[in-house]
């Protein structure tokens, strides 16, 4: 008959092994989903904003700065799939 200490040690080893395998499987599953989405997902095609849809430039602001902000917002929305 084995002692309780050795049984607890074996139980702890099985716990660590089981949890490690679960985390390994879930990590590989997440990486696999990202890989499939990257290679087989739909390609995002940026749609340019027509000039008539752009708002008027407020007085006193640099037009280059506003254009850079507009492009950054457009890229963020495109990346997040929120572009209309």
From TrEMBL:
InterPro entries: Na_pump_deCOase, OadG. This is Probable oxaloacetate decarboxylase gamma chain. GO terms for cellular component: plasma membrane. GO terms for molecular function: decarboxylation-driven active transmembrane transporter activity; oxaloacetate decarboxylase activity; sodium ion transmembrane transporter activity. Its cofactor is Na(+). Catalyzes the decarboxylation of oxaloacetate coupled to Na(+) translocation. Keywords: Cell membrane, Ion transport, Membrane, Sodium, Sodium transport, Translocase, Transmembrane, Transmembrane helix, Transport. GO terms for biological process: sodium ion export across plasma membrane. It comes from the Bacteria. Its main location: membrane. Heterotrimer of an alpha, a beta and a gamma subunit.
């Amino acid at each position: 008959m084995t002692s309780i200490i050795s049984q607890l040690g074996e139980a702890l080893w099985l716990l660590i092994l089981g949890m490690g395998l679960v985390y390994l499987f879930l990590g590989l599953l997440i990486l696999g989903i990202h890989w499939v989405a990257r290679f087989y997902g739909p390609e995002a095609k940026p749609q340019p904003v027509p000039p008539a849809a752009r708002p008027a430039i407020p007085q006193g602001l640099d037009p280059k700065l506003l254009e850079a902000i507009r492009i950054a917002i457009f890229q963020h929305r495109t990346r997040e799939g929120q572009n209309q």
